[in-house]
Amino acid sequence: MTFTIDVDNNITVLASSLQTEERQEGTDAFSSSQELATLAAKLPGSRLVEIWNSLPGVEPVERFTSRQVAVTRIWKAVQNLEPTAGAGRRRAPKKESAQIKANRRTRPAVRENTKTAKVIALLQQPSGATVQAIMRATGWQTHSVRGFISGQLKKNLGLKVRSSKRDGERIYSLKH
To answer: Could you give the domains of the chain?
Structure first.
């Protein structure tokens, strides 16, 4: 069997050598682990990670310890791909990006009468809220307010928080 990798990191299994000759511009072919190793030597490490992460049924990685480890793991994973009978080729389906998955995640509900609910209510005011106002409402220190806005509101809840200065004082508000 011959495998191809296109510019979008899609791996395709080709059943015949004729299909190898018909491949598109920028597509690389390999049919052994040695050929894959030769191909991988020319690719940046980040592309090997992208190729691995696009394979179906694999645990995504952020990096490999070496090129040889990447080649070995990719070669082993593509052995599970089979060409389809009619078309003679099968593509490894692309995995959804982490950004798409993050956007699809439902936001956790904020309970009433919590400090999170109080801060969100303050930030939803048309004029926003100062750090001092948030500190009075929650009893937190300045660094805790900034950390809460960055960590809980922006990262965990996915809210768009706008920060500006008015009369030398930091004002936070929610983008609508």
So the answer is: 2-101 (no CATH), 115-174 (1.10.10)
